[in-house]
């Protein structure tokens, strides 16, 4: 921590030795909500002791209260249990990056697929019905991620990823031969959705096994794959659609997915036993029947929603990702609706994801300094401003190419942080050994939200006129505004009205 950072966060002005001694005496009798606070002070006392002795001691010790969030991670964790760096840890980040390039990178590209299907195989099908394909895909992906998360907690990442890779490859390969709405629903929506869902949870959760202090930065590095995939897949698909057939384009993409996910499976490695509490380590390896029973009993944890912090964090993720997926699905159609070509529409998605590389990594670094929730609130607030002012008031009325490009750049920077910061926010309020379970629970609920949100978005767009799209923009703006409100309530639940708190 720099001198400026120390000055910024010196609200307590007490010596670390006194804080450490006081926390030792009061720990047994402290209110439950303060236990995590004292644990954080105990683990950081040695780092603060030298600087704390030079602070201004004008405030009385008994009138000083330690800030509840002096770390960006769950404060009951022991930092010594996490490598927080090293070759093996960063190989895991690389594996996660490659896998997320497929899982979320393609999610950022589904607008290209939606636009192509709407003009070719499904040209006689309404937008509201076509949206069912992607709504089912997202619902299945997010729902299965719940099972993928708990399977990761119990079985580790490699077995889980292997199953997901098989489903994903087969689903994409079968999609190549689809011609009707029902066939796309079955192959892409369900089979591919299962594969995406199984892979998504472990690829995000494995980062939390290796990083604690640098967790937000590690998540940001891994989720750069989302933007990289969002850059290359629209370009690849656009080129393949023009040079070969749709069938061969999907077959080639399926083999690209297979290679990337195989590399990811080989690179990632879990630390389930190392991070599990000592009392929970099993002497005997559980049988398959016991593991299935564990998966059944622990597949969801709705009781976690009783915690206000997790409840409002989940709602914030639901609203923000519904807006993100809806925009990613229908923005290319908006560009063509205002009079521009398919290649221009696909280019806007590439621009968003190019800028999104910075939008994911920079906020991740800042989140380790000021806290993931603080950064998430800021990024979502600017996303709201971008949607309401640039997209609605400028672009939808002027229909100029300049307004579309400006929106793509600004929106791409601020909104792309959603996927990289959401795991950090969940991890900050969750124990590491149950992160996969909570991650899956959050995204089960999010999947239901996004499913309904995409169907609603398709119904709003209806015939695809500019007036329909204006209503859709208002709909997206309302979703992002609701997300900001939820994250603000979450922050208030954790810190009250204090502003200079790392959370």
From TrEMBL:
GO BP: any one term: riboflavin transport
Its membrane topology, per UniProt? Multi-pass membrane protein
Q: GO molecular-function annotation terms? A: transmembrane transporter activity
Q: Where in the cell is it found?
A: Membrane
Feature: compositional bias, Polar residues: 1-15, 37-47, 61-75
Domain Major facilitator superfamily (MFS) profile as annotated: residue spans = 88-494
PANTHER family named in the record: MONOCARBOXYLATE TRANSPORTER (PTHR11360), RIBOFLAVIN TRANSPORTER MCH5 (PTHR11360:SF177)
The identity of this protein, by name, is Major facilitator superfamily (MFS) profile domain-containing protein
Q: Which organism is this entry from?
A: Dekkera bruxellensis (Brettanomyces custersii)
